[in-house]
Design goal:
The protein has helices at residues 8-15, 21-32, 34-37, 42-49, 53-62, 68-79, 96-117, 120-132, 145-157, 168-176, 194-205, 244-280; strands at residues 135-140, 162-165, 182-187, 209-215, 227-231. It is α/β, with parallel strands linked by helices. Strands 2-1-3-4-5 form a five-stranded parallel β-sheet, with helices on both faces. The chain is globular and about 65 Å long. Keywords: DNA-binding, Transcription, Transcription regulation.
Length: 284
């Protein structure tokens, strides 16, 4: 779909007088608080407007957007400098040293803020759930897929039976076949990716226990989660690809796998030794 024919805010303002009551309330939230909406999830906008998530998405499509995330990108284009699409803290004349400092500072902040919100009790419940699982299914789409792959490799190395599923169609198939005893791990910064929300919902309906890693704040994914492990990444408001969120997610995966290895005792240590020996054959 092409970009909006003119700026998102102007288009919304032009359409506002003819909108039905629910859509009008959503439009008013966006028009009144555009800079805040860039930060918000579709669930948070829906709650602020007293509407459903589906109504928010429907209005976005009426505006010519593919969905809520597309609307946020278009809003950002009308509110920020072009270089902020790379990283929100950058200035046009920043040299390499300044870019390094700003990028590393953003990553450090994401780790510190995630440390503050990650619930140790929730992590302990996730560890106990994974340890009892007969199989673990790991879901991730787009920028979350590499993090899902890292989680898959790490869990294999401590001796757990797991599968990586990063294709949306295969996720749906996997989820419908995930019954009691299966645990799913879904990774999504926004918690609003239709593919992973759908897979998690289907898995839970099939009887699986669902664990999710997602950013703090309300989003559609959490409605289908038995255990939520929060990140608090200040992911850039103005682009779609992940930077700080990926760092925070990897740290949560590291904490989860480390706790699983400790809980697994000698069995986990033995699995780590065996995999290390096998991998040593791949090196000169």
């Amino acid at each position: 779909m092409a970009d909006f024919p003119f700026a998102a805010l102007q288009r919304l303002q032009a359409l506002r007088p003819g909108l039905p009551p629910t859509a009008a309330r959503i439009a008013d939230v966006v028009l009144r608080l555009p800079a805040e909406v860039i930060h918000m999830s579709v669930t948070e906008v829906a709650e602020r407007a007293g509407a459903s998530e589906g109504s928010v998405v429907a209005l976005c499509r009426q505006l010519g957007a593919r969905g809520f995330q597309h609307l946020k990108i278009e809003l950002a284009r009308s509110l920020v400098r072009p270089e902020q699409a790379i990283h929100e803290d950058l200035e046009p004349r920043d040299d390499a040293g300044t870019v390094i400092r700003k990028v590393f500072a953003a990553g450090t902040q994401a780790l510190q803020e995630t440390l503050a919100v990650l619930d140790a009790a929730a992590l302990e419940r996730a560890v106990a759930t994974f340890r009892k699982a007969r199989r673990i299914e790991i879901y991730g789409i787009g920028s979350a897929a590499p993090v899902a792959e890292d989680a898959y490799i790490r869990l294999l190395r401590v001796g757990l039976d797991c599968r990586l599923v990063v294709d949306s169609h295969v996720q749906a198939i996997s989820a419908t076949q995930a019954g009691p005893g299966v645990v799913t791990l879904t990774i999504s910064h926004s918690g609003s990716s239709m593919e992973t929300v759908t897979a998690t919902k289907l898995a839970r309906e099939a009887g699986a226990t669902t664990v999710v890693i997602t950013n703090v704040g309300r989003n559609p994914l959490q409605a289908h989660a038995d255990i939520v492990l929060h990140t608090a990444a200040r992911e850039t408001r103005f682009r779609t690809e992940a930077m700080t969120s990926r760092i925070a997610q990897l740290a949560v995966v590291d904490a989860l796998v480390s706790c699983l290895a400790l809980e697994g005792g000698e069995a986990s240590l033995s699995a780590l030794r065996l995999t290390s020996e096998a991998l040593s054959l791949k090196r000169y």
